[in-house]
Design brief:
- With 342 residues, the chain is α/β, with parallel strands linked by helices.
- It folds into 3 domains: 138 residues, no CATH class; 134 residues, Tetratricopeptide repeat domain (Serine Threonine Protein Phosphatase 5, Tetratricopeptide repeat), CATH 1.25.40.10; 55 residues, no CATH class.
- It has 13 helices and 9 strands.
- The strands form 3 sheets. Strands 3-6-5-9-4 form a 5-stranded mixed sheet. A two-stranded parallel sheet has the order 1-2.
- α1 links the parallel β1 and β2.
- α4 runs antiparallel to α5, α7 runs antiparallel to α8 and α9 packs antiparallel against α10.
- The longest helix has 18 residues.
- The radius of gyration is 23 Å and the shape is globular.
Length: 342
Amino acid sequence: MSEADQVVVLDTGSTDATVEKLRQRGASVTVEVITPWRFDTARNRSLELVPEDAEICVCTDLDEVFHPGWRKELEQVWEEGAGQATYRYTWSFNPDGSEGVVFWYEKIHARWGYRWVHPVHEVLAWVGEGRPGPTVVADGVQLDHHPDPTKSRGQYLALLELSVAEDPEDDRNVHYLGREYMFRERWDDCIATLKRHLSMPKSTWKDERAASMRYIAKAYLGKGNQQQAQDWYLRAIAEAPYLREPWMDLAELLYEQEEWDGVLYMTGRALSITHRPRTYICEAAPWGSLPHDLRCIAFYHTGRRQQALEEARKALALEPGNERLRGNVELLEQEMETAVHP
């Protein structure tokens, strides 16, 4: 953040040397307790601490790191009257260091006219006069997220339930709540909540609707009902056939059922999608080695060793540190060699 004119931090309860370290580096740090805890309240309080003559606010958390040069890239695209900037955000990394979930973020905004809303999964809302300024695209800005895997998500569910209670017609909140129930393996609550999401008049974004259908399918799998899961995966495909995720979800289910021709069809359709969307709906596995890995196994079980080897090599190229994938390549190469020179 040192490229900014000023770094303003609201510390809401650290118990280590965070405050001292930040101040040593020149940050302006305010320590306050937010009770009851809400993410929007905390972010709005931090925004109040930003000098009134600031023009652009760049909001990050302490586990997020910009690539150097972000300010210059932002200034090149920011225009007079702009409201927000969207930029590339790597939410997670794979064990080998490669990128996992990647989407585009919008937490850079003009100083005035915006407030944060919702107790959790908070977003910027325009509260100024007239219409907000345009959102500029900062292609050259990259922000990396390095979360602490030991940090609890325990507060999320209660805050999401509060969020839906406060604004029951907000379809985004209902979707997030259903997803959280899925994470908690509360299958029936997940199914009921996401079916409600799909019935809401404002629920029109096909990417998110397809995600709700996929999560319903996963909940049915959790309940042991593979037929219902398959039906909901098919609905997700019909809703958003341009996304890899539903094709790959069904491919994995067919893999478990050893329906090899189905695996090949579903993975083939997934791989035919070459445009990776910029939304948070995009997941890592469908864009990694998984499609080729499943195709390798399906080709192998249907007696097509050469095609299996080709797919194994493609999978390994996308995940070179994976020893299992490397073993698959070596095994298939040995089998092909033995077939030629018994």
